[in-house]
Amino acid sequence: MTTGSTKTAGTSALPLFYREPAVLHSEAHAGWRLKEGDTAFAAGTPYVPIVLGEFGEAGCCYPVVFAGDTFLPVVVLGLADGENLFVEERAWANGHYVPAYVRRYPFGFVAIPGSDRFALALDTASERLVREGDDGMPLFEKGEPGPLTRQALQFCEAYQAEFQNTKAFADALQEQGLLVEKRADATLPDGRRYALDGFRIVDTDRLRDLDEATVVDWHRKGWLSLINLHLASLGRLTTLMERQASRKPPL
Q1: Cα–Cα distances in Å, from 175 out to 70, 143, 166?
Q2: In what helix (H) or strand (E) does residue 166 lie, and over which residues does it extend?
Q3: How far is CA 241 from each of CA 86, 89, 187, 190, 248, rounded to the nearest angstrom?
Q4: What DSSP assignment string belongs to 197-238?
Q5: Are 135 and 35 in contact (CB under 8 A)?
Q6: What is the pLDDT of residues 77-98, one digit of tens each?
């Protein structure tokens, strides 16, 4: 009998997936290109961050919970550390939503020291990057960002703006004392046991006790709908258990 456990969204020196992030530069990366790739880089993570605009689609596929030091929302993708149940043969499982955080990789934003601005960066350790040759699409053309880089910049700008809204939402939940710590334990038919901890969910009793002014304000912001999507997504824990049960236990 095997036992597994995962603690969601612990702190890390580098952002999830990124090993050698560097600010994109027209001279340093002048000849670099990017090949088509897969999602094998996400195979070892049991959680991924999401932003508010993803609650609907993501919540239909995965449990949405709050985790980490700042209680930001994440989707739970596995019951054991080092295992994403939705990456199969280097590809994301068909019919399941792919989080924006995964889709933007290997691009991302890094904060510019001494300011509130961000710069487009990429993980220079990505297997998709080509430093010489003609494979893939160029990052720069004649010293200017190519179509791929411009598209990545637009995507990351939209993601960063949504991230700020997401942080405001999570901060409000925490300030109102609505987030409570939970633990989920699962025993599969073959005897394997799993424990999922280190996450929080909205307490429905405390939610009902919100004052009228806050309820009206959150309704206008669309936050009450997001809370309902979060609570409904918790039923996907059953999906995780079923998916885990379908996988053969390690030898």
Answers
A1: 11, 47, 14
A2: helix 147-175
A3: 12, 20, 8, 12, 13
A4: EEEEEE-HHHHHT--HHHHHHHHHHTHHHHHHHHHHHGGGHH
A5: yes
A6: 999 888 999 999 999 999 999 9
> Which are the contacts of 222, defined by CB distance < 8 A and separation ≥ 6?
none
**pLDDT given for residue 3 in this prediction:** 43
Amino acid in position 68: G
Whose CA is closest to 103, among 156, 53, 142, 59? Answer: 156
What are the angstrom distances between the C-alpha of 123 and each of 41, 50, 189? 12, 19, 41
**Model confidence pLDDT, tens digit, residues 227-251:** 999 999 999 999 998 999 888 766 5
Specify whether the CB–CB gap between 77 and 47 falls below 8 A.
yes
Asked whether residue 202 carries a pLDDT value surpassing 80, the answer given is yes
Q: What pLDDT score does 181 carry?
A: 95
Nearest to 99 by CA among 154, 20, 17, 210: 17
What tens digit of pLDDT does each residue of 153-193 get?
999 999 999 999 999 999 999 999 999 999 988 888 888 88
- Report whether 161 contacts 144 (CB < 8 A): no
**CA atoms of 10 and 49, how far apart (whole Å):** 12
- Tokens linked to 40: 């094998």
Q: Look at residue 199 in the predicted model and tell me its pLDDT.
A: 95
Residue type, 166: T
